[in-house]
Design goal:
This protein has 15 helices and twelve strands. With 307 residues, it is of the alpha/beta class. The protein folds into three domains: 87 residues, NadA-like (Rossmann fold, 3-Layer(aba) Sandwich), CATH 3.40.50.10800; 117 residues, NadA-like (Rossmann fold, 3-Layer(aba) Sandwich); 72 residues, Rossmann fold (3-Layer(aba) Sandwich). It starts with 11 loop residues before the first helix and ends with a helix.
Amino acid sequence: MNSVATREIPISAYEGCSEDELSHRITVAKKALGEQVLLLGHNYQRDDVIVHADLRGDSLLLSKLAAERSSHPYVVFCGVHFMAETADILSRSNQTVILPDLAAGCSMADMAAIEQVDQCWEELGRMLLVEESVMPAVYVNSAAILKAFCGEHGGITCTSSNARVVMEWCWQRREKILFFPDEHLGRNLANTMGMPRDQMIVWDPYQPYGGNTKDAIRKARLILWKGHCSVHQMFQPTHVEYFKKTYPGIQIIVHPECHEDVVNLSDLVGSTEFIIRTVKNSPSGTIWGVGTELNLVNRLKQEEVDK
């Protein structure tokens, strides 16, 4: 590995810079570092970040791609904390993963603290044989310590793409699933699988027994953590109804982290990569209403000018 000379530069050196100056500095730095650095840009980043990215995509895809490129000893992940953790877990022994802003977080991922999950598991254990009857399943958009919790208790991690397969895997092995931290992804999947509503409960970590009766917990097959993505909860059924009325022939495609009332009115539901692939592969002249993060939607609009 080539050595890299580094020096700490105070943030004040950048605060007064224009966008053009910042972009120029990044370009110069990338050229100087060459193959030593791989810059990852998550789909939700702004265009002025994405333009410098060597690779762009969702967090797990980027983490896998970075690990396959072990010739790059430094991986800079332009995303949030759990994304850089995932890249670090999958990275090769010669790679160092860098998160530019250590304060960059995800509201949904922050809604399940390990202390709360431990308490939930303890409370469930007072009325159930949890290790035999409850399978913990955590969304990949979560902290590494929550993934470790699932591993410790025989559980599993899922993505929005494979969550249905993961749920089926869980129910083949245990009676109940504790699904966290996003309740909407879990509920939307359970709805498509035909699960009765009285077999789902929501666990509020700020309430004793999650705000549920013991009878409801014993009856439940799916325990949904009370957590959500603040971006995807901005979309409302009235938005879908308005755009369907205003633009005849429009197709509404949304992320499964949206509320079920939005999902049920939409034409297609899927992961970020599914949304991108579907819109890009659609015929020219088609009209799309896309329910996910704004930067990604605007980028699709700029790149798919015939739609």
